[in-house]
Amino acid sequence: MGKRIITINKQKIDTEGAFYYERIKGELEAKVRGKIVAINPDNGDYFIGNSVLEAVKKGRARYPDCVFYTVKVGYPAVYSFH
Q1: Helix, strand or coil, per DSSP, at residue 9
Q2: CA distance 18 to 75
Q3: Using one digit for the tens of pLDDT, what is the confidence trace for 20-38?
Q4: Alpha-carbon gap, residue 16 to 8, rounded angstroms
Q5: What secondary structure does DSSP assign to 22-67, as a single string?
Q6: How much is the pLDDT for 1?
Q7: pTM of the model
Q8: How confident is the model at residue 4, as a pLDDT?
Q9: CB 55 within 8 A of CB 70
Q10: Centroid of chain to Cα 75
Q11: Based on C-alpha coordinates, what's the Rg of the chain?
Q12: Bridge-partner residues for 37, per DSSP?
C-alpha cells in the first residue's frame, strides 16, 4: 500500500480556519474556554479536545486526510514558553 500525499495550502488553512473560528468563537468561549478546537478549513466542522492531539484525532476519525486549523479557545496561542 503506497503512501498518500496531501497537498497543504498554509494560507488557505489559516484564512479559512480563522474565518470559521470567528463565527463560533463567542459560543465556544462561553462553553469550552481553555480547550483546543480543531477546525476543518474546508467546511467549518470542528472538534474539541483537551489537547491538540485529542482534538485532531477526533477530527481525523471523520476527515482522515484533513489538515486542521487549531486554536486554544479564548487564548492568543496554544502554547507559551516561560
Answers
A1: coil
A2: 13
A3: 999 999 999 999 999 999 9
A4: 13
A5: HHHHHHHHHHHTTSEEEE-TTT--EEEESSHHHHHHHHHHH-TT--
A6: 59
A7: 0.89
A8: 74
A9: yes
A10: 14
A11: 13
A12: 48, 71
For the beta carbon of residue 49, count every other beta carbon within 10 angstroms. 18
Q: Which amino acid is at 8?
A: I
Nearest-angstrom CA–CA distance, 35 and 66? 20
Residues of the chain with pLDDT under 50: none
**Dist CA 42 CA 76 (whole Å):** 22
The reported pLDDT for the residue numbered 81 is 77
Residues in a beta bridge with 71 = 37
Distance from C-alpha of 58 to C-alpha of 76, rounded to nearest angstrom:
23
CA-nearest of 21, 73, 25, 82 to 49 is: 73
Q: What are phi and psi of 15, to 5 degrees?
A: -65, -50
DSSP assigned state of 79: -
Question: What pLDDT, on the 0 to 100 scale, is given for residue 45?
Answer: 98
